[in-house]
Structures are given as structure tokens and as C-alpha cells.
Specification:
The complex is a heterotrimer of chains A (506), B (118) and C (89). Chain A is mainly α. Chain A has helices spanning 12-19, 32-35, 60-83, 95-123, 127-155, 164-170, 174-185, 189-218, 222-252, 256-274, 276-285, 293-312, 323-343, 357-366, 371-387, 436-444, 446-449, 455-459, 468-474, 490-503; strands at residues 397-398, 411-412, 415-419, 422-426, 429-433. Chain C has 89 residues and is of the alpha+beta class. In chain C, 26% of the residues lie in helices and 43% in strands. Chain C has helices at 14-24, 49-56, 65-68; strands at 3-9, 29-33, 36-42, 44-48, 69-73, 75-78, 82-86. Classes of the chains: A mainly alpha (506), B alpha+beta (118), C alpha+beta (89). Chains A and B meet through helix 13, helix 15, strand 1, strand 3 and strand 5 of A and strand 1, strand 2 and strand 5 of B.
Chain lengths: 506, 118, 89
Amino acid sequence: MDMKTANKKMSAKDKYRLLTRDLSWEPSYRTEEEIFPYLAYEGLKIHDWNKWEDPFRLTMDAYWKYQAEKERKFYAIIDAHAQNNGHLNITDARYLSALKIFLQAISPGEYAAHKGFARAGREFRGVGTQVACQMQAIDEIRHAQTQIHALSNYNKFYNGFHAFADQRDRIWYTSVARSFFDDAMSAGPFEFMIAIGFSFEYVLTNLLFVPFMSGAAYNGDMATVTFGFSAQSDEARHMTLGLECIKFMLEQDPDNLPIVQGWIDKWFWRGFRVLGLVSTMMDYMLPKRVMSWREAWEIYGAENGGALFKDLARYGIRPPKGWDDAEAGIDHMSHQFMLGLYQWSFGTSFHAWIPSDEDLQWLSAKYPTTFDKYYRPRWEHIKKLEAAGTPFKNYGLAKLCQCCQLPTVFTEPADPTLICHREVEYKGDKYHFCSDHCMSIFDNEPEKYIQAWLPMPALFQEPTNGDLGAWMDWVSLKDGQDNGDFADSQDRRNFEMWRGMATSNQ
Amino acid sequence: MPVVALKEYVGVARDRVENFNGKQLVYASWDHHLLFAAPFLLCLAPQTTFAELLETALKPLLQADPDAAAIDWHAVQWLKGNQPWVPNFDASLVANGISHKDQLRFKTPGLNTICAVS
Amino acid sequence: MSTVFIALQTNEETRPIIEAIEMDNPEAVVNREPAMVKINAPGRLVIRRETIEEQLGRSFDMQELNINLITLSGNVVEDEDSLTLTWGN
């Protein structure tokens, strides 16, 4: 029988008080406003910073201990992956497109979140808040590093991974995630916390990471399962920080409610648009699919988000304004998006493809009310064009939303056969949007969003001036290697050849 | 408030017409024809006639849709800025009142081979 | 009653933890997915250190949960003896 050792440790509460709360001091020769200049201008009223509760009461010593253990586990598997040709164990090379999008669009977001939380940790006043933000800042840079490191093993063998950092700044679809984080980081510290800590981490992160990791597990990708889990093990803490943060704001002063509600409305919608990329991954890019985007939304969006907003109703919070329109879009968005990615695949640093008959059947079954009626006929026509030797490429570049920066592929909430056209005029210029919600975000702060760098209009400005070849060079896209249809890609040929070599003696 | 900021803050619009080397942007979309995933972004000189916009910029992009060949361009219904509008085919974009970043939409009732119409 | 949940990685470390959670929460439903175990419960889920220690045969610090935690849903209350997830309604 095991002997239990006597518990000589301090209680978690005492330890937390000594190692966290005790780190703060009252300023004596500078005013609070001088030290924390960004706390007031967003309009939030905070009366007592000590009311901030960290339910995990994690202290720095324990933080380092557990993070170090996560790293050891991570590198053990990354080494095994590299030593055992793990890149040949994935279901097939189509899966790589999901990884490329992740590396180009999401991993840089982790780095952006790192910068944002480092800043928030400095700008907030309460020491509990500061320490929690600092830990999250370190978590986020760890996520960026482990993701880049894990995926560098794929870069040794496949196209499309090599220029993710340049592409984060320059290629078109990555600007969706980039602008999301830029928008949050250029807001004040409280809005930043609602944007990333609450809306993204609590409401939406499950929809990104859980299906993505399960997807990796289903498709034989050990490296990604590992970085995903390693990152996700921090997410529970981040989610809890986000939830505590919103409760703190709401409990401090009743005047905070309308401001917080406005941010929830805004950031739910912005996050939902970023997740559009994930919907294509779940419904189209995983050769072996986990569940449909619709099913994931039911579990992690509708059910979990529903429970959350029911809980927050005691503070007067209602579900985000865009909730119903989001729900209405669930059965459409992955199809609208993937059709776009296919026709614009000459300009993507990953491959797209026409779904096989079996895939089309799966989509019909998962989307019984929408797929056969609206989307199958388009894929069937595209297939016909391909068979006739005139594959469909849409060289008409796309109109982008001034707010979320996605191509405006989305339809009217009540009419799936009509693109949603929204525009406003501000200071003599016209601005276009994908939806009512993106438009209302703009209307609220036009002076911010008129500055958006939209990659499609930018293609016609300096330095590329409308030259598609020059643009490809500028975004580090190797034509004929990184882009185009999967069917005749180098990635596909190489994967099949190498796998053949690995499983036979030829 | 045009932006939440500590002090007065004025943004600089990125996509002002001066940045397009004498050209302008025009958006065009064909209602209920969603083979094309989003409205097209065209970059044209303001002196371009509307007929040239159709012939050289728009029509080549529409070929992939089986309805394209059947369009009677003089019968289509146009919207500009989501309002009904009638183009003058021989006049320039400027003379047609098509300014930078205007959105043109056109409808072709009865043509709906690929996309069901609600 | 809203569902609370916790998801843990599937591995040797979490097997006894999951068993402990099942013992302490008769209403919990355990879903075993690839590489992940997701435990749902109506309104409330409690994870007790003592039960885990009995299953593990060694002492356990509740913060060790952090290593294998994937995600959770609900308001969190944690001390050295337990972690509780709740939704108010």
C-alpha cells in the first residue's frame, strides 16, 4: 500500500497570495494615471482591482514546472515523428492543405496574441490580472514556436510551407486572421481582453482547436496532434481567464454592461468570420473527416455558447447580435468558401480540389437541406469543365469585406442564391461589406477601418500594380508548385511515390 | 464617435483613388450566378466606355457559366449602389457616374442553369 | 440544465483521473474520441483529489490536471481538494 506523505505545502490560497497578490505595491511618486494611462479611455469603470479572481490560482513556480513538462512531452513526439518519416503516415497529401492554412494564418495569430497579452499585462492595474496576462503571453509565444517547429518537418518535404511569415503579411486569405488580431491589438486593454480572452478563447477556440486536433488524430498526423494538445492544455486556463475577466468587468459597475455587450457583439462576429477557414477544413480538407462543421457548431457553438450566454444573463448580457445570422450561415459557409478557394487556387499557397463523388455524397448527407439544392450543381458543373479540359479558374479577383477582409462570398441571410451586398459612404469614399454585422462594426469606428490594408485592391497599387506574376513573386508564391489543383500537384506525386517506396521494396 | 481613442485621431484611407495609377476600381456581380464565388474586382481607366468594360473586362470572366452566352445585354436589369440604374453603353465610366469602388449588379431573369433561385 | 464538460487527452496519466471523475459524478457521460476523452455532465461536474489519489495510488496536485487538459466549459472553482465546473441555470 502506498504511504501518503504529509502535506507540508502551503494551501493554494496562501501560496497564491504570497506569490501573486503580494507582488504589487502602491505607487508613491507617480500617479496611477501616469503609470496606467490606458485604463480609462474605453469608458469602463473599475472600483476594486483586488476583486479579480484567478480560479486556477496558478503561481509562476508551478507554471514553469507544468509548462516544462508539456514541452518535454511535445519534443519526445516531434523527435519520433521526424525519426520515423511521420510525414508519410498521414491519410493522403490533401490533408497538408489544412496544415498550410494553419501555419500561414493561425500560427502568426498566436504570435500576435503573445504581443497583445504582453501589452495587456503591462497596461492592466491589478496584479492578479497582470500575472495571468503574462502567463498567457508566454503561452502564446510557446504556441507559435511549437507550431512552427512541428510543421517545419513538413516543410522539408512539401510545398507551400516555406514562406508562411511573408505570406502572413502579404497573401490575401491570411489577412483575415491578421486583421482580426491587429484590430484587437489596436484597441484598448479591456476591449482586447473581450476580443481575445473572451470571444476568441472562450466562445470560439473550441471550434478551432478541438476539431483540428481530432482531425489530425483521424488523419495520422502525430506532430499536429501533439502541438495541438500542447497548446490546448493552456487554453482551458485562457478560457477561464476570459470568462473571469468578463465577469469582473460586469460586476465592477453596472455602466460597464452596454460597453461590454457591444464588444461581445463585435468580437463574436469577427471571430466567427475567421472561423470560416476552419469550416472548409472540416468539411473538405480532411481526407478522413471527424464531424461536419455543422456538427461541430452544434456541440461547441450552439450548445456550449448557449450555456455560456444563459449563465451570463444574470448580468444582463444577451447572446451576441450576430448569433442568429451565424446559425443561419452554418449550413452554407464551408461550401461558399471552398468553391471560392477552388476557383482562386492559382493565388493560394495550398492546394484545392474538386470533391470526389464519395465526398459529395458525404456532404449531401451532412447538409441535407442545402448541399444538393445549392452547392452540388456548382461542383458538378466545375467537374464538367475540368473533364472538358477547361478547368475553372476565376481570374476576376474578389471583392473583399472592409471589416473581416474575406471575399464577400456570403449570401443574404434569407436568400442563399443572392450574394449579400452592403456598402456605406464615409468621407466621400465607398466601403463594402460581407454582412450587416461587419458593416455595423465599421459604422461604429469608421476612422479605424478605412485604414484596412485589403490585399485585392492592394494588388493594383504599388509595388505590383496589377501584374499577377509580380504579385506571386511578392507574396513568395511559386507558381506551379505551391498553388493550383491538388490533382496534378507535386505534393501529390511526391507523397504517393514516397509512400510507395516506404511500403514496398521497389 | 468615429473611433475610440485617447485623443483626436484621423485615419488615412488606404484605397483612395489616387493610389491606383490613374485607374479606379469597379465591382461587378451577376445576381443569382454563384458559380462565381464573389463579386469581381475590376481595375479600369475612368475613360473606359461601359461597352468596353463589358467586352474586355466582364464578359471574359463570365464564360465559365453556361448562361453567359445567352445574356441579352440590352435587356439586363442593372443596379448601382443597390439602386436601379441604366447604363449608357457608349459613355465612359465617369460619364456614367461610375465612381471609384462603385458596385454594379446585373440581373438576368429566367437564366438560372446552375443556381436555383429562391 | 446546461451541460458542463471537461476534455482530457487520452493517455496513461488520465485513465485513472477519468475513472475517478466517473465515480464522483454518476450522471456524467464519458465520450471516448480519438486521442481525447470528453466528459459531459448536466449543470455540474466535480473532480476530487482524494478519489484521483485512490485511483492513482500516489498523491496528486490538482494543478497537474493542467498538463493533460484539452478544454472545459462552465464556471471554474478550484482549490487543493477539488475542481468544480458549474453552469448556473
